[in-house]
From TrEMBL:
Residues 553-582, 611-629 have a biased composition (Low complexity). [4Fe-4S] cluster 1 binds at C397, C400, C403, C446. SUPFAM superfamilies: alpha-helical ferredoxin, Nqo1 FMN-binding domain-like. [4Fe-4S] cluster 2 binds at C407, C436, C439, C442. Part of a membrane-bound complex that couples electron transfer with translocation of ions across the membrane. This is Ion-translocating oxidoreductase complex subunit C. Its cofactor is [4Fe-4S] cluster. Residues 630-641 have a biased composition (Polar residues). Gene3D superfamilies: 3.30.70.20, NADH-ubiquinone oxidoreductase 51kDa subunit. GO terms for molecular function: 4 iron, 4 sulfur cluster binding; electron transfer activity; metal ion binding. It comes from Aliidiomarina maris. Residues 491-514 have a biased composition (Basic and acidic residues). The complex is composed of six subunits: RnfA, RnfB, RnfC, RnfD, RnfE and RnfG.
Length: 662
C-alpha cells in the first residue's frame, strides 16, 4: 500500500519524522532485524512433540463448554437443557463489551448447565454447558462466503465475530474487535515465532496447512487494507519457514522473516521491535505505531470461517512431556477435558505428579484434570518427575539485578516485587506493571528462586478488582445522584403543579365573585326584584331569617326566656313584613296574578324556600316556648301561685291564665 499523506503524517507524529520514516521503511524492506532488551535462552525441548503430524482424537463422550473463553463478557445462553444441537451451532449470543459467541464442537444433547472449574490457576468455577455427544459429528447450517472480495470490511468483520474467532496465540482477544480499526496501518505481522519451550502447535500448523494460512492472510489484508505483510518464524523451525516461503512464492506483498531464537521474541511488543525497530509506547497499542499483529492459528481460523463457514470449534493443542507415551499435537474440540487429552496421549501418572496448562515459562499448574480446553489453550505439559524439578523454598532477595538485565520490557522487576508485596498499587502503576508480559524470564534467572511472576499476577488481579469495585462505586454514585436529582425534580414539579392548581382555584373563585358582583351591579331593578323584593328588603329578610334561626336554636326546650320569645316574635314579624312588602315593588310589566298567588310568583324559588324555613322555625320556637310555659305553670303548687311573665302575652285559646283563676 502506498502511504497516503495522512498516514505519513500520523507516523511522523507518533514515532518518526518524515525522513526517519522513509529510512525505517527502507530498512524493513531490506530485511533488517533489530533486537529487544533482555531475553534468555532456556532449553527448547520442542523435538518431543513436533516429529509427528497433527492427530485427530476420537470425539469424547462428554464436553465441558465454558460460556466465556475469551477476553470480554460471556455471551447469553440461547439453548436449554435437553436441547439437541448440531456441530457449529451457536450456544450463546455474543455479550456486550467485545463478547463472542460459543459454538458446539460436535453434535449431541445439552444435559446440564452447571458451575464447573475453569482453565485457571485457581480453577475458579464458571458457568459451563455440558454436552453429551452422539458420536455422529453432524454439521449444522454453515454460511461460507464464496468471494470475500465482494464484501466490505464491516461485513467480513461481522462474519468473523459471528464465528467466535479469538486470538489463538494465548490471549484470546476477540479478533473482530482487533480488526475494527479506522486508522491506516503500515504492516500486518503474522506471529509464528512460538518461542516458549515445548510448544509446537504453530510449527506443525505451518508445516501442514501453509496454503490455508496464506489464504487467511489475504483475507486479513482485504479487511485491514494493509499491503505489506511480515510473517515471523523463529529460526529453530526450518521446515515451517520453508513451507511458508513456498506458499507465498510470487506474492511480493508477503515476506517471511526468520528471527533469532531468543525467549520471549514471540511477545507482541518484542516481535514488533525485532521486525520494524519501532517500540510500542507504554500503555499504548501496536496500532499507535502503524502495526497490526495476528497469530498464524488465528489466520487459519479466519480462512476456515470465511471460506467454509466454520465457527471456531477446535484448535491445535500440543501434548508434550516425558510423562506421555505418545507426545505430539492434536485437533482438540473446545470443551474436551485435559484428562481425555492425557488419556489419548498415554499419560503415565505418578504420585504428586503435576500437569501444566501452557509452557514451562508462562503456563500454570492445574489443580485438577477435569478442566476443559478453551480457545486460548495451546499446550498441555506433563513432565516426568525429574524433568522439571520443583522450585526450592523462596529466599530473600539479594539485590543482584539479574531480573532487570533479562526483562524484555525494560522494567525493574525487583522494585515491582517490593511494591507488590506491600500492595502499593499506586507505586505499581508508576513503575508500569501493566507493561509486564509475565514471560517469567525474571523468575528463571532469580538465584533466590522468588516466584516473581506470581506476585505480579496477584497484584494485577488485585488492581483489576480494585478498578472494578471503583467502577461499580462510580456507577452507584452516578445512579444515586441521578435518583436524587430525579426525586428533587419530581418534588419541584409536584409543588409547581399544586401551586398552579391553587392559583387556578383562586382565579376561578375570583371570577365567580366578580361575575356575581357584576351581575348585581348591572342587572336592572326590575330584574333584581324578580321576587318582588328590593335590595334593602332582601337584606332585611336575610337578617330576619338569621335572627329567627338563631333565636330558635338558642331557646331552651324546657324554659324560654322572655327576651328570646320577644326576639322570635320580632323575627317572625320582620319575616312576615318582608314577605308582605314584596307585592308593593312589583314592576309594571309583571304578569297579572291573583292576590293569593302574587307573593309566590314574585319571589324567587330560593327566597321563598328561605322565607318558609324562617317562618317554620319561628313558629316552632314560639310553640315550644308556650308549651314550656304551660308545663311550668302546672308544675307549681296551688298554695304558691306565681304568674309567669309570659302570662302577660296572649295565651292560646281555650286556656285560662293563673290570674284569671284567682
Amino acid at each position: 500500500m502506498s502511504h497516503s499523506a495522512s498516514q505519513t503524517e500520523r507516523a511522523a507524529i507518533t514515532y518518526f519524522n518524515a525522513d526517519d520514516l522513509a529510512r525505517n521503511q527502507a530498512e524493513i524492506a531490506a530485511g533488517k532485524l533489530w533486537r529487544f532488551p533482555g531475553g534468555i535462552h532456556p532449553p527448547q525441548r520442542k523435538d518431543l512433540a513436533n516429529q509427528t503430524p497433527i492427530a485427530r482424537m476420537p470425539i469424547p463422550k462428554r464436553l465441558w463448554i465454558p460460556l466465556k473463553q475469551h477476553i470480554g463478557q460471556p455471551g447469553q445462553l440461547i439453548v436449554q437443557v435437553g436441547d439437541s444441537v448440531l456441530k457449529g451451532q451457536a450456544l450463546t449470543a455474543p455479550g456486550p463489551n467485545a463478547g463472542l459467541a460459543v459454538h458446539a464442537p460436535t453434535s449431541g444433547r445439552v444435559s446440564a448447565i452447571v458451575e464447573h472449574p475453569s482453565a485457571h490457576p485457581s480453577a475458579l468455577p464458571v458457568t459451563t454447558l455440558i454436552l453429551d455427544t452422539d458420536g455422529e459429528d453432524t454439521w449444522g447450517q454453515r454460511h461460507p462466503i464464496a468471494d470475500y472480495t465482494q464484501l466490505d470490511s464491516a461485513e467480513l468483520i461481522a462474519h468473523i465475530a459471528q464465528c467466535g474467532i479469538a486470538g489463538l496465540g494465548g490471549a484470546a482477544f476477540p479478533t473482530a474487535q482487533k480488526l475494527a480499526n479506522s486508522q491506516p496501518l503500515d504492516y500486518l505481522i503474522i506471529n509464528g515465532v512460538e518461542c516458549e519451550p515445548y510448544i509446537v502447535s504453530d510449527d506443525r500448523l505451518m508445516r501442514e496447512h501453509p496454503a490455508g494460512i496464506m489464504r487467511g492472510i489475504k483475507i486479513l489484508q482485504h479487511i485491514s487494507g494493509i499491503e505489506q505483510v511480515l510473517v515471523a518464524i523463529e529460526d529453530n523451525k526450518p521446515e515451517a519457514i520453508k513451507a511458508m516461503r513456498d506458499a507465498c512464492e510470487g506474492d511480493a506483498s508477503i515476506q517471511v522473516r526468520a528471527v533469532p531464537t531468543v525467549y520471549p521474541s514471540g511477545g507482541e511488543r518484542q516481535l514488533i521491535q525485532v521486525l520494524t525497530g519501532r517500540q510500542v509506547p507504554a500503555n499504548g497499542l501496536p496500532k499507535d505505531i502503524g502495526v497490526l499483529m495476528q497469530n498464524t492459528g488465528t489466520a487459519y481460523a479466519i480462512y476456515r470461517a470465511v471460506m467454509f463457514g466454520e465457527p471456531l470449534h477446535e484448535r491445535v493443542v500440543t501434548l508434550t512431556g516425558e510423562a506421555l507415551e505418545r507426545p505430539g499435537t492434536v485437533w482438540a474440540p473446545l470443551g474436551c477435558s485435559v484428562e481425555d487429552l492425557l488419556t489419548f496421549a498415554g499419560y503415565r501418572a505418578y504420585p504428586k505428579a503435576k500437569v501444566i496448562m501452557g509452557g514451562p515459562m508462562m503456563g500454570f499448574t492445574l489443580p485438577r484434570l477435569d478442566v476443559p480446553i478453551v480457545k486460548g489453550s495451546n499446550c498441555i505439559l506433563a513432565p516426568a518427575k525429574k524433568e522439571l524439578p520443583t522450585a526450592g523454598a523462596e529466599m530473600a532477595c539479594i539485590r543482584c539485578g539479574a531480573c532487570a538485565d533479562v526483562c524484555p520490557a525494560s522494567l525493574l522487576p525487583q522494585q515491582l516485587y517490593w511494591l507488590a508485596r506491600d500492595h502499593d498499587y499506586d507505586g505499581l502503576r508508576q513503575y508500569n506493571l501493566a507493561d509486564c508480559i509475565e514471560c517469567g524470564a525474571c523468575a528463571f534467572v532469580c538465584p533466590s528462586e522468588i516466584p516473581l511472576v506470581h506476585y505480579y499476577r496477584q497484584a494485577k488481579a488485585d488492581m483489576r478488582e480494585q478498578y472494578i469495585e471503583k467502577h461499580k462505586a462510580d456507577i452507584a454514585k452516578e445512579r444515586f445522584e441521578a435518583r436524587k436529582a430525579r426525586l428533587e425534580r419530581e418534588k419541584q414539579e409536584r409543588l409547581e403543579k399544586h401551586q398552579r392548581a391553587a392559583e387556578a382555584r383562586q382565579k376561578a373563585v375570583a371570577e365567580r365573585e366578580a361575575a356575581a358582583a357584576a351581575a348585581a351591579d348591572t342587572v336592572p331593578d326590575t330584574a333584581n326584584t324578580n321576587a318582588g323584593e328590593s335590595k334593602q328588603d332582601k337584606i332585611q329578610a336575610a337578617i330576619a331569617r338569621a335572627k329567627a334561626k338563631k333565636a330558635g336554636q338558642a331557646a331552651p326546650a324546657a324554659e324560654a326566656s322572655k327576651q328570646d320569645k320577644i326576639q322570635a316574635a320580632i323575627a317572625r314579624a320582620k319575616a312576615k313584613k318582608a314577605a308582605q312588602a314584596a307585592p308593593n315593588s312589583e314592576p309594571a310589566e309583571a304578569p297579572q296574578t291573583s292576590p293569593a298567588e302574587a307573593p309566590a310568583a314574585e319571589l324567587s324559588k330560593q327566597d321563598r324556600v328561605q322565607a318558609a324555613i324562617a317562618r317554620a322555625k319561628a313558629k316552632k320556637a314560639a310553640q315550644a316556648a308556650a308549651l314550656a310555659a304551660s308545663e311550668n305553670q302546672e308544675a307549681q303548687p296551688s298554695n304558691k301561685p306565681e304568674a309567669s311573665e309570659d302570662a302577660t302575652l296572649t295565651p292560646p285559646s281555650g286556656e285560662k291564665t293563673e290570674r284569671g283563676h284567682d
